[in-house]
Write a structure and sequence with these properties.
By secondary structure, the chain is mainly alpha-helical. The protein has helices at residues 7-31, 43-75, 83-92, 99-114, 118-136, 138-142.
């Protein structure tokens, strides 16, 4: 039996998401000045990038698995499906512009965790930095 989310539970997820977005914005600002050239990174730089990638992944995951899910279930209490299904529904109701794009964002989590080649990791870091403004734009959705 599915419990229908309330405005209160959606607001609670929105508050958690706002906090996550603040942390991501902080890390994003720090990596703006950094090179993504992995072989040249010192430990402090690598740690800053790792914090940024973790915050990106956590924010995307919180948005898709908690906030989007709650909004969709409030709209349609009987809805059931995968994260992809919820993203598709969120696109359908205008909550997000592109389910494909958000699934790509979510996919970066696995790529970053398992990437061992410096060139591929560098490209992924650059991609995350380039795509972060889209995720950070969620603040406009939550205000």
């Amino acid at each position: 039996m599915t419990v229908k989310p309330t405005n209160k539970s959606i607001a609670a997820y929105a508050a958690k998401l706002q906090k996550s977005l603040r942390h991501l914005a902080y890390s994003y600002d720090k990596v703006q000045k950094l090179s993504a050239d992995v072989p040249q990174m010192d430990d402090d730089t690598l740690e800053t990038w790792e914090s940024f990638t973790a915050r990106f992944s956590r924010t995307v995951d919180l948005f898709l698995t908690k906030y989007v899910r709650a909004v969709v279930l409030k709209e349609d209490p009987g809805f059931s499906g995968s994260v992809r299904d919820y993203a598709d529904y969120a696109e359908k109701i205008g909550l997000i512009d592109s389910a494909d794009q958000w699934m790509e964002f979510r996919g970066f989590r696995n790529v970053i965790v398992h990437e061992y080649e410096d060139d591929d990791l560098q490209q992924n870091l650059e991609d995350l930095r380039r795509l972060s403004p889209i995720v950070l734009n969620l603040t406009t959705l939550l205000t």
